[in-house]
Structures are given as structure tokens and as C-alpha cells.
Write a structure and sequence with these properties.
Order of helices and strands: EHEEEHEHEEHHEHEHEEEHHEEEEH
Distance between the termini: 26 Å
Helix content: 25-40%
Strand order of the largest sheet: 12-11-10-13
Shape: globular
Largest sheet: 4 strands, antiparallel
Radius of gyration: 20 Å
Strand content: 15-25%
Structural class: alpha+beta
Number of helices: 10
Amino acid sequence: MKKRILSVILSSLILSIAAISISGCDRSSDDNTDNSQINNSQINNSSTTDDNTTVSVFEYEYEENYTYKLDYKYVEDYYFSSFGGEYIELYYDIVDAVINHKSEIEISNSIEDLYYSDNVIKGFLHINPLQSFVTNIERQENVIYIEYRFDEQNHKKELQYMDKRLNEILETNVKEDYTDFERIMAIYTYVSSNFKYDSSYDVESNEKIDIYDFIKNGYGVCHSYARTCKFLIYQYGINTYEARAYSPDGKPHEWFLAQIDDEWYHFDPTYENNDTNGLGLKYFAMSDERRFNNGGFLPQFIAGVSPITTSSPAAIKTNFDVFNNILSYQINSDRMIDAKLTDGKTVTLDYLDYVISNY
């Protein structure tokens, strides 16, 4: 899997992030998932529904000497600029420290401006899936102190659980010869159709249900769906961007953009889950216009800029707007889409040829 070269977090971007709350979503669903608080000290591999039925999420065997399958030195490109390699190394040091349950990191003397070190910490807490395992991280002078959700033994077990579960999703759903388009589609459909929306989530709570809790318990909210998709897509070196906006009635929402053959498109797995049970492609590979028509969203924050008013990353291509009417689909043996449309008709789309011919 490809890995990207990273640079340092922009302080101005951190301020932009704070402008829009992403803790909740404007979208609710009809499922009745039990949303009781998670006991942080409890180690289990199951979730509980409203009828007190325990549902197995993922079975795994803990290994003492385990090599992680996924790349956790993950950050979206727009969080970084060219301040210098020492900030890249600090970000990597934080990732390595959390993986190994280290409580202190000494900041290198090569870092002259400790203020930007604080921005590296903020960026880690915002986007990295490992932040689910951290309860507090702060800098005092030239030392970063980290506090953890689990003790060291359970930390390793739960981190290994997350890695194996995410890797299992990729190995089961993404074939070796898939194009980037097919990889995104496989990940998008799996995430939007296999997890429940937490309909009792308090939008004003400012709590996050990030990747670990999402896959562990089987339910989450908009940022849970979007960030899980993004992190899995990142493993193939595909560029993604975080997208947030307020709905016309003033509620916050988060989805993401991904790049296919140098063109940007919007993807909303939360809305897909709500409208098609995750089985369709109504919110897959949307242009800016289609994104607006499907929800009324004009993104106030996409990489710190709005694609409506700037050229980067504008999602102007309408190549896949035909997908807007796909209620459910499956890929047949000829690698074509057998799709059921919203009007009840069934069609077959040669999407590989379609992707190539429409560029």
C-alpha cells in the first residue's frame, strides 16, 4: 500500500476547523440501536441492540508479537505545509508513542517554534484514528505528555483489534486488481451498509464516535462513517478531503471527497445508509451540483477553502451523476453494475468503460 510524504500542520487551518462543529449530523435513521455509554475499561467484541441481543462484531486472536497491517502515519495533505521535516518527525513520534503506549515524548531541539508543535498535536487529535485511544495529550515546555484510555495490556489488545478488523474489511471487499474507482466503491458500500446510525446521538454533546468505537460497537454518526471510509481509502494512496457544512436548517454534517483520475467527487456514506440502507450509489461520486441537490449543502469547509468559490478541490465533473438513481446494485461476473433504479427499472452499466469514456 502506498504511503504519502507528509509535511506540517497549518495553524490557520486549525482555526478553520473550529469554525464548524462536526460532532453531530443533521441526518437521522430509523434504526433502534441501543446507544448506551461505552465503558472505557471494558474489553469486549460485541455490541448490544435495543432488545438486549448481543451481536458479535468481529472475532480475532490476540498476538504478542504483532506487525500492524495498516499505515497509521496518516494525515490528509491539506493539514500540512512546508515548515520543515522536524514537524513531520514529531507527528510520526506521536503516532509511534501511541502505538507503543508511551506517556512522554521529548521534543527535538531542532524544533524552534513550540507553538507549531501544539498544532501537530491538534492535528493528530482531529484526524488520526489512534486518537480514540488517548484521553489527554498536551505539551509542557519541550515534553509532550500522553494519557490513555486503556492500561497498556488492554491498549495493545484493542489497538490490535482495530487493525485486524479494518484490515479484514479491506481483504474481504477490495480485490487485488481493483482500480481506485472500484476500491472506493467497495469501501463506501461496505461502510454505509454494515454500520448503524446512532439516532439518539446528541448533536450538542461535542462527543466523537471515531473509528475504533464505530467498528467496535457497530454504530456511529456522520463523522464516524466519513472518517472510516477516508482512512481505509488512504491505505491505497488515494487522496481524500474532509467536507463539512450546515444543512439548510442549521445542523452540522460531515462527508468526504476523494480523487478519481485527478478529479474530485463528494461521497456521503451517512446519507447512503439512511436513504438506501447503504445498498445504492445515490450519494456516491457526486459533483458539487449534485451534492447541493442531495441535501442542500454548500461546504463551508473543505480543506480550509470552499470549492464553490475556488478551483481546488472543485468537484465539477458530472461523470457519475447517473448513479443518483441507483437504489441498489451488485457487481456481476463481467465486472458490470446490475442496478435497480428508483423508478423500479433494472439496468446494467459497464462502469469501467463508462469511467474511461467520460474523461
